[in-house]
């Protein structure tokens, strides 16, 4: 496993150190990171191909994923924000956390959604920069992917919502650089509350790594979100 991680670090160039500066070119904006790249191991590719096959009849759909929140989504979210200009800047400049690390060293994942069954599946290969206990994934990294997958499931089935509550049971440690499957479903809807749950299993489904339940709350258009509070963020970056 450690050898596999070392190979990953070499192929992705992570040992060369961090790159300086930021690029906001449209080329960077439009790279879909939920497609196979050289850092994906065989298991990841196999699962990806299996889900692409399942997507052929339209029951499953691959969810594209970018470093930035796609500004096409702005129509869906702008009713919640009083300042549309600031929102647009935020969505196109700030990076989505799970896509903010270099290729292969952090979160490699692809999600698929089934609209009929209200289910979202994420295939996830956690790279060497997500280490917690030696040789295993950090719990926060696991929580990030669980939250992201549950979030997609909630948003795609119920509309724009935020995580209000997240409970995770970590049953077994997840080996670094292994591939796991996060299986999410919408359990029920009560008013603005969307109850979702998931399990995280090994590729052969024999090992149950984690289980989680979560409540997402659909945003209320009457309650505006003021992102001016993150003004310091822009000052520091520029
Ligand atoms: C705008 C964000 C979304 C934008 C998405 C845009 C595009 C999507 C594109 C790509 C998506 C990419 C990734 C998608 C995945 C994302 C996953 C990440 C999601 C997050 O990482 S997100 C960050 C962490 N998240 C927060 O930062 C939330 C902080 N929080 C709040 O902002 C408020 O708290 C809020 C809005 C949650 C509710 O506030 P509110 O004022 O609208 O609602 P209110 O309090 O009135 O509650 C209404 C009913 O929910 C019940 N309720 C409330 N809180 C509860 C709790 N904790 N447990 C159980 N029930 C709860 C009440 O009991 C009441 O229930 P009842 O109706 O029965 O009385």
From TrEMBL:
<keyword id="KW-0472">Membrane</keyword>
<keyword id="KW-0053">Apoptosis</keyword>
<dbReference type="InterPro" id="IPR029069">
    <property type="entry name" value="HotDog_dom_sf"/>
</dbReference>
<feature type="domain" description="Thioesterase">
    <location>
        <begin position="135"/>
        <end position="207"/>
    </location>
</feature>
<keyword id="KW-1003">Cell membrane</keyword>
<keyword id="KW-0809">Transit peptide</keyword>
<keyword id="KW-0999">Mitochondrion inner membrane</keyword>
<dbReference type="InterPro" id="IPR052365">
    <property type="entry name" value="THEM4/THEM5_acyl-CoA_thioest"/>
</dbReference>
<dbReference type="InterPro" id="IPR006683">
    <property type="entry name" value="Thioestr_dom"/>
</dbReference>
<keyword id="KW-0378">Hydrolase</keyword>
<keyword id="KW-0966">Cell projection</keyword>
<dbReference type="GO" id="GO:0006915">
    <property type="term" value="P:apoptotic process"/>
</dbReference>
<keyword id="KW-0443">Lipid metabolism</keyword>
<keyword id="KW-0963">Cytoplasm</keyword>
<dbReference type="GO" id="GO:0006631">
    <property type="term" value="P:fatty acid metabolic process"/>
</dbReference>
<keyword id="KW-0276">Fatty acid metabolism</keyword>
<dbReference type="GO" id="GO:0005743">
    <property type="term" value="C:mitochondrial inner membrane"/>
</dbReference>
<dbReference type="GO" id="GO:0005758">
    <property type="term" value="C:mitochondrial intermembrane space"/>
</dbReference>
<comment type="similarity">
    <text>Belongs to the THEM4/THEM5 thioesterase family.</text>
</comment>
<dbReference type="Pfam" id="PF03061">
    <property type="entry name" value="4HBT"/>
</dbReference>
<dbReference type="GO" id="GO:0032587">
    <property type="term" value="C:ruffle membrane"/>
</dbReference>
<keyword id="KW-0496">Mitochondrion</keyword>
<protein>
    <recommendedName>
        <fullName>Acyl-coenzyme A thioesterase THEM4</fullName>
        <ecNumber>3.1.2.2</ecNumber>
    </recommendedName>
</protein>
<dbReference type="GO" id="GO:0016787">
    <property type="term" value="F:hydrolase activity"/>
</dbReference>
């Amino acid at each position: 496993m450690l050898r596999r991680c070392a190979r990953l670090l070499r192929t992705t160039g992570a040992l060369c150190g961090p790159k300086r500066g930021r690029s906001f070119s449209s080329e960077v904006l439009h790279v879909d990171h939920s497609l196979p790249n050289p850092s994906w191991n065989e298991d990841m590719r196999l699962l990806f191909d299996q889900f692409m096959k399942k997507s052929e009849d339209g029951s499953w759909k691959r969810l594209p994923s970018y470093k930035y929140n796609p500004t096409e989504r702005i129509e869906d979210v702008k009713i919640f924000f009083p300042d549309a200009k600031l929102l647009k800047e935020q969505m196109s400049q700030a990076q989505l956390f799970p896509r903010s690390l270099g290729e292969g060293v952090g979160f490699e994942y692809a999600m698929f959604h089934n609209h009929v069954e209200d289910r979202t599946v994420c295939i996830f290969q956690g790279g060497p920069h997500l280490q917690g206990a030696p040789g295993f994934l950090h719990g926060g990294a696991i929580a990030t992917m669980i939250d992201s997958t549950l979030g997609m499931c909630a948003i795609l089935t119920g509309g724009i919502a935020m995580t209000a509550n997240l409970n995770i049971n970590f049953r077994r440690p997840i080996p670094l650089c292994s591939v796991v499957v996060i299986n999410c479903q919408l359990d029920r809807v009560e008013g603005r509350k969307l109850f979702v749950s998931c399990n995280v299993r090994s590729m052969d489904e024999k090992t149950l790594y984690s289980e989680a339940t979560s409540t997402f709350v659909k945003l209320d258009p009457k309650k505006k979100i003021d992102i001016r509070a993150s003004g310091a963020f822009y000052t520091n970056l520029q």
